[in-house]
Amino acid sequence: xxxxxxxxxxxxAQMYRLAKTILxxxxxxxxxxxxxxxxxxxxxxxxxxxxxxxxxxxxxRNRCRDVISHKSIRERVEKLFLQESLQxxxxxxxxxxxxxxxxxxxxxxxxxxxxxxxxxxxxxxMSYEEVAQTVGVSKVTVYNHLSxxxxxxxxxxxxxxxxxxxx
Length: 167
Hints:
Elements lengths: L2 H21 L2 H18 L8 H35 L9 H14 L2 H12 L4 H8 L3 H28 L1
């Protein structure tokens, strides 16, 4: 048995329990622990034995925090977009004319980087992490661009709606 295998066998269950306590999701918890061991294996550097448990538990907590943060950002933007769609303020799937107007607005009024991020996230259905890697920005930047784009879209369609009511 290699040193790495020994560490895996000794700490896996403890790391998994900690991740599950934080995330409440068995599969995500397994993924977190697997990611940490994959990184250790890839880097080839193991912490000193007396620091191993502290290092691994801190790595689990940090990775769980990243997972929660990513989820939180994704859920907030998707909730905003869903809210707008459900309220029929932007577009419904059955309204081709409004969809065309939405796409036209995005093409002409949303800045290029925000437009690219919007397309990758909502049209290609990429995750925040995938969008961030593709564009070369952080996940927070992706969230900020999407949030600003949705705000501009909302304001535009609110104005269009007000104008239509006046007519």
